[in-house]
Amino acid sequence: MYRDDHRTPCKVIKKARLRHKFEEKKLRDTPGDFLTPAPRSEPLHLLRTFFPSKMAPFNSLTGQLKPSGSAKRKRDTKYKNDDADKENDATRPAKATKTQTETANSVTARKTSSVGLSKEAKKLYTDSLKALDKRVDKLDKKVKTMNGNSLATTTSDYATSAREHMAAVNKLVAMDTTLAFNLLLSMADASHTDLDATAKMCGTPCDDSIPTFKLLDDALLTLVEAREKPASLVAGLPEVPRRWTWEDADVGVFKTGWPNKQQRGQMYLQKLAWEKKRRQARRERREQTDDWVKVALSDLVEERDYLAAYGVEEYLPRCIAKLDAMVRMRGE
Questions:
Q1: What is the dihedral of CA 181, 153, 313, 300, to 10 degrees?
Q2: What angle do CA 302, 303, 307 make, to 5 degrees?
Q3: pTM above 0.85, yes or no
Q4: pLDDT tens-place string over residues 32-49
Q5: What b/e readout covers 187-202, taking b as 16+ CB neighbours within 10 angstroms?
Q6: Which stretches does UniProt call biased (Polar residues) (predicted)?
Q7: Whose CA is closest to 326, among 223, 238, 240, 242?
Q8: Alpha helices in 66-198 (DSSP H)
């Protein structure tokens, strides 16, 4: 009974041992070669170090025949390094000299300075226009509350207010003459007001607009002579809104043939809004039109004729004469 239980597994073990012995003898009798060295005399269970479980595969036979890095000759390494240095010298950009570096730095500094100066000039110009408009609005509010015979505010007050921005003009002259020129023209627009606002708005002995007109005339004349003549000439100027008239009023019918107090107040506000848009349109035309001579002459002549009709004289005469002569020289 006991032998019957062990007979089957014992036969399996016996056959496995015989198979193992046969394979071992076959392996030991196999002669070694270059790729498969001959086995040692130790048993197979002691040969784990000789047959590792994970061996790196051979890339090629020539790779096995190459000498190690330590066995390379020094002169081979030297020649290789020399060739690499020559190749790097050929591809490496030439080092800039001290003079070239200083020149490049100075050009970059000038460009950066020019860009920064342009931004500063533009900001000064924009801020000055905002301040100029703010002063005009402040005076307009005072005029609105005035009595018709009051002399509290006259057109000369607008002229005095406009000349307060001459400091900004002097700064702009050193940075951008074009912006300085346009700012002066905007100041000339703001140097007078609606002469119909009150009965004594102009033409009174206390009118002191002429000194401001002379100051603006001298400053503009200097810039006119300094600026380059426009490269392109325009046949006609872009249109801007004309001066406000009673026909533009939108206050209903005048029942008595004359506006009442409420209608006069509404008309005054409409006129202020109209003139503000008109001044802005004239500024944009100056900034966008290349023929600055013709634009400036058109604006100044229109304002001169308007003021002269109310007895206000000496509105930038020298500058107007200079611009007119420049236009005539072009044969227009």
A1: 30
A2: 120
A3: no
A4: 665 666 655 555 555 444
A5: bbbbbbbbbebbebbb
A6: 97-112
A7: 223
A8: 74-91, 98-144, 155-162, 166-175, 177-189
